[in-house]
Amino acid sequence: RRAFRSGRGDEMTRANTIIDIDRFFKIGDKRECWNWFGPKHRQGYGHIKIKGKMHLAHRLMYEYMYGPITKELKVLHSCDNTACVYPGHLFLGTQLDNVRDCIAKGRFPR
Prior knowledge:
The chain has 110 residues and is of the alpha+beta class. Helices cover 25% and strands 18% of the residues. The chain contains 3 helices and 6 strands; from the N terminus they run ββαββαββα. The chain has helices at residues 21-27, 57-66, 95-104, and strands at residues 3-4, 19-20, 47-50, 53-56, 74-77, 90-93. The strands form 3 sheets. A two-stranded antiparallel sheet has the order 1-2. The protein has a two-stranded antiparallel sheet with strand order 3-4. A hairpin with a 2-residue loop joins strand 3 (47-50) and strand 4 (53-56). The longest helix has 10 residues, at 57-66. Mean pLDDT is 79; it is low at 1-18.
């Protein structure tokens, strides 16, 4: 059974809380976008509870695949699908990067 461990605090790392990765991947759909079929926030972002704490599914996937993320960085979707957890569609950026991406794609409310 594949698993990784997470550290204390807000930072997720492979080194230290056990998360059942098989469970995580069974929830996703392996199409172009891996759509999260577990619980979602009203904005459509998947989330999962681990040791009593809620985590955004796309952020957790990014951290599992690429390593820890600092608090000031966001995990953005190149596909603009908030339910997507496919690592190839996820990239890091600031909130300003997120707004710029939104404007560039014509999704910013006017």
